[in-house]
Amino acid sequence: MNEQIKQIAERLAGLRDVLDITPDEMANVCNMCTDDYLRLETGNVDISVSLLHKISMTYGIELTTLMFGDDPKMNAYFVTRNGKGVAVERTKAYKYQSLAAGFSKRKADPFMVTVSPKPDDVPVYLNVHAGQEYNYVISGRLLLQINGKDLILEAGDSIYFNSELPHGMKALDGKDVCFLAVII
Fold this sequence. Notes:
Layout: H1 3-18, H2 23-29, H3 34-40, H4 49-59, H5 63-68, E1 87-91, E2 94-98, E3 109-115, E4 132-139, E5 141-146, E6 149-154, E7 158-162, E8 167-171, E9 177-183
Antiparallel strand pairs: 1-2, 2-3, 3-9, 4-7, 4-9, 5-6, 5-8
Helix pairs in contact: 2-3
C-alpha cells in the first residue's frame, strides 16, 4: 500500500488513542469485525472515503483531517487554486483532491476525483455512507452503480443520490474519468 494510506492508518490509530476508543468500539462504528478494523490501522489495507466519512461524522472530526492530516483553519472562505487541492491517492485507481480542506466546520466535502480504468473482469467496489452525494462528470465516461442499477455518465452529466444506498464507480473506455464529488 502507499505511504498516504499508511499515514491515514496512523491518524485513525491516533484518533482512537486520543479519544480513548477501543478497537471494538471503532469496529462497531465501522460495521466490521475488530480484526478487520485493526487491519485498517496497519496501513496495508485500503481505507474507503465512505468509511472515513462515517468515522468523521461519528466523532466530530473533519474528514479532511483524517484524510490529509491538516486541521482546517478558515471560516469565512477558502480558495483552492486549479490543481492545488490537497490530494490523496487511496489506490492506484482512485485519486481524491480536496477542494475545501482548509475550511473549518464544512457542511459538505467537495472533492475532485480521478478514477483510473480497471480490467473489465474487476467488479465495481460498492460502499455506503451517511448522507447524500452529488457527482458531476468533468471528463471521461463513468459507470456508476447505485443500489443494483448501472448508470453511464458522460462529461457534463451529473447525479445527486442517497449515499446510504450501495454505490460504486468504474472508469470506462480504458481512460481516466474526472468528476466533482460533493459528500453532504
